[in-house]
Structure formats: C-alpha cells, structure tokens
Amino acid sequence: DAGVIQSPRHEVTEMGQEVTLRCKPISGHDYLFWYRQTMMRGLELLIYFNNNVPIDDSGMPEDRFSAKMPNASFSTLKIQPSEPRDSAVYFCASSYHGEQFFGPGTRLTVL
Amino acid sequence: QQPVQSPQAVILREGEDAVINCSSSKALYSVHWYRQKHGEAPVFLMILLKGGEQKGHEKISASFNEKKQQSSLYLTASQLSYSGTYFCGPTAGRNTPLVFGKGTRLSVIA
Predict the structure, then answer these.
(1) How many whole angstroms separate alpha carbon B64 and alpha carbon B85?
(2) From residue A25, how far is each of A95, B45, B46 by CA, in Å?
(3) Is the Cα torsion angle B41, A5, A73, A41 positive or negative in sign?
(4) Average pLDDT, chain B
(5) Which of A99, A101, A106, A107 to mutate to test the interface with B (most CBs of B within 10 A)?
(6) Dist. CA A57–CA B91, nearest whole Å
(7) What whole-number distance in Å separates Cα of residue B110 and Cα of residue B101?
(8) Which end of chain A is more exposed for a tag (fewer CB within 10 A), N or C?
(9) A62: contact with B, CB 8 A cutoff
(10) How confident is the model at residue B53 (pLDDT cuts 50, 70, 90)?
C-alpha cells in the first residue's frame, strides 16, 4: 500500500491567494483527519470525516477554511483567502481501527 | 482540551531509560502515542484502551491509569533511533478524535 498521499508537498503563495491541499487516504479506511502543525500551537485537529461525512469541524480556525470529501479516496482542504498566519505544515491522516496513518504533510508558506 | 505532557524535553545517553507522562483533565477512553522525527510525519507507536487492552509497537511500553486520567510511555535501554518528539493523544470516547499534547522532545546521544 502506498500509504496516505498528500499533494503538494510544498506550497508557497502570496497573501490573498486561494490554496488547495489534497489528500488520498489509505484504501478501506473510514476516517480521515486534517491537522495543522506549528511550533506555537503543536498538532491541531482541524476537521475529521467518517465515511466521507464531516463529523466535527470545530477546529477549523475561520470561515476562510473549508474541507470536502467527495468520495472515499479523496479529500481537499481549501484556504481562501490565505494569510501569513496560515503558514504551517498540514497533515492528513486516515484510520480504520483507531491507529492513525499520517501522510507526509504539506508545508504551506504564505508570504 | 489539550493534555499536558512532561517533561517537555529530555536528553539521554544510549542505554538510558526515560519516562514520558501524559495527563488529561477529561475522563479517558484511550490514549494513543506517536513519535515524530524531524521533518517527518507522526508515526503510530501504541494504543492503550480503557479496560486494559493494549497494542504495542517496537520495544516501548506504556501504562494507562484511567482513574488518574494519565498515561506514561516507558523507553528502556534507549537507542539513537528513539530520538524524536513523542506525542500522546487521548480520546474521551470510542469514536471521538484525538487531542494531541504539545509533545516531548527526546534526544538520544552516543
């Protein structure tokens, strides 16, 4: 199995631009999680899905953030408009029986 | 609410032991432990479940005290490969998400 796949691995953009992060979970996993990691705040859960349905998005910082999971093999996290404080590493993780498998992350830099 | 991990950082020589603690203000159903090496994604180590069921990984052990809402990770005879940041992630229920602590940075030196 290829594991959780995320793209892009690195993204540099300017303030105000739209950013879309992509995630392909491990086949057969029914939970998908989006996390953001910064030095100051650590690893924060943004939103998670169960069987493609958003369950809890209370960690999404603002309306500028949105996430979708149109099918079991694909999810996106969109930031529009982006701001410098959104700079972080964004991880996607999937699970089936509790253990979470993390993707390699997307390092986002907003100038 | 974020669990509290202690210590924040520790330096060990190869072969030494360490204990990392994780405390939560909420009643716990399970505790997950992950390790993250610099520049990489977190990797699952272990789940401890309420009632004593335990899953393990490598040669690292852990305990889970439901009454005290605490978990501890034990690393014995540490190896250079143990270096990294260790995160605990308690859950309050069977289908509730993890809330990760801020991590404990472990450095093992020769």
Answers:
(1) 20
(2) 8, 19, 21
(3) positive
(4) 89
(5) A99
(6) 16
(7) 28
(8) N
(9) no
(10) low
- Chain A's closest residue to B104, CA to CA, is A42
- Chain segment A1-11, per-residue pLDDT in tens: 689 999 999 99
For residue B52, name the pLDDT band (cuts at 50, 70, 90).
low
CA dihedral (B105, B37, B73, B89) in degrees, to 10, reads: 100
Residue A19's Cβ-count burial label (10 Å; 0-12, 13-18, 19+) is: buried
Whether chain B has a CB inside 8 Å of the CB on A65: the answer is no
Look up tokens 């079991």; give the residue.
A72
Residues recorded for chain A: 111
C-alpha distances (whole Å) from B38 to each of A47, B31, B67, B73, B86 are: 24, 23, 34, 20, 11
Residue with token string 């390699």: A104
The pair of three-digit structure tokens given for residue A12, joined into one six-digit string: 């540099």
> Do the Cβ atoms of A62 and A77 come closer than 8 Å?
no
